[in-house]
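Hi, here's the filled form for the chain we discussed.

Project: internal
Contact: R.S.
Residues: 334
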Amino acid sequence: MPYTSSSTATTSSNPAPHSKNAAFRDQSESPYQQRTTQKDNPTQQLIKQAVDFLLQQLEAGKSETLTAYLAAMARFHSYSFGNILSIARQRPSATRVAGFYAWKELGRFVKRGEKGIQILAPMVGHRRRKDDADQNNGPDDNAKPQPVLIGFRAVYVFDVAQTEGQDLPEFEHNITGDVGEHRDRLIAFLDSQNIALEYSENIAPALGVSYGGKIAILPGQSPAEDLVCLVHETAHELLHKSTRRTMTTATVRETEAEAVAFIVGQAVGLEMGKSSSDYIQMYAGNAALLAESLEVIQHTSAVILDAITAESATTQNAPSASSPEVQDAIAEVA
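And the returned structure, exactly as it came back:
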């Protein structure tokens, strides 16, 4: 899935994790916690700390920023294919459209003299079906009329550029810090895995996209955001471009990729804030889902950290990215 910034993300309800893999409330019962001891190498210690912190953030719930963002996005309706073509024909530059009163509820107002974009809105009425009445040998006073589509009418919407007022809530990453040589090492790792990298403005508003053998990143991001986005898409390449993709939902895939991005970013000293926990929850992920995927998240994070950190590359227990051990690890998590 694309690594998005302010684009609308579709969330869906997912079944609760199987009890066998449910979140470990008692950390001493977690097999991950049992594997990670003081004798483990520094990479494993960094992963453990980052996982614990991310779990705490997810259990704390949505941040105010994410809540405001999701509330605003809920006011932007999904349009039919015909209306999408109509909007594109009348205003090719449109990004977010809404009706006059929807903009007003968001604290924005249509500028004087702006021309609306005409689309078709369904008209729904309520009619009592004749055959229902016949089956009951007469009208049933308790039967609720069924909603039926009785036609369409022309309505007008306006693009955000045609409005002014309060700024719309945005999903913010706000990732800061010094990336050092980590980005260059990650690019070298991708090259060793025959994964092409390109920078393209055509993927906007997504920040990054994983295609399977190729990653595209939106240019213009800060160095810290660029690295974290690249790690996110690398995780997709390692985890979700094989048969395992058919065994997971979009929510699981985004939770895993963003958890890996958070762990790696935290481990190399970036200030991650709540960006990753908000991103995961935007896709309906949660702490229980993270715990269920802990094995592959930990494994993939270790592979990437071994590739980009000088410390792990020189640690006795941490093989380099090109070593057979890491190649086997990539095959295992995929």
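Let me know if anything looks off before we file it.
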